[in-house]
Design brief:
Length: 112
């Protein structure tokens, strides 16, 4: 018996970071921090914690850990990427222990 995790398929949400958005931007902007969201679900047959790694533009940035999730339970994670330069960026998330399917997602977005 083991915990195994997948992303729920909702994709990676990208938004201004509410903790670093002094000008009130509503879309990703270089004058605000960027925050992402994602959702993981335990598809295994035992409880455990999901470890999600986050890369931005092919460079590892940070990781996030879920609370203890019983089989079938899910949790939404939020991670701050900091401030990014204007232009196109790609964020990649990957979850461990993964199920071997739906264990990574990416999103390419524009920062104004």
């Amino acid at each position: 018996m083991s915990a195994m995790f997948e992303f729920t398929g909702g994709g990676i949400g990208v938004m201004p970071d509410p903790d670093d958005n002094p000008n009130g931007h509503v879309v990703p902007h270089h004058e605000s921090g960027i925050r992402i969201s994602f959702q993981v679900v335990n598809v295994g047959d035992a409880g455990g914690n999901a470890d999600v790694g986050v890369e931005v533009d092919d460079a590892f940035l940070t990781s996030w850990q879920s609370s203890f999730l019983d089989p079938g339970n899910s949790e939404t994670g939020f991670v701050s990427l900091g401030r990014l330069t204007e232009g196109e960026h790609t964020v990649l998330t990957f979850v461990n222990p993964g199920s071997g399917q739906a264990d990574h997602e990416s999103n390419t977005f524009i920062v104004g």
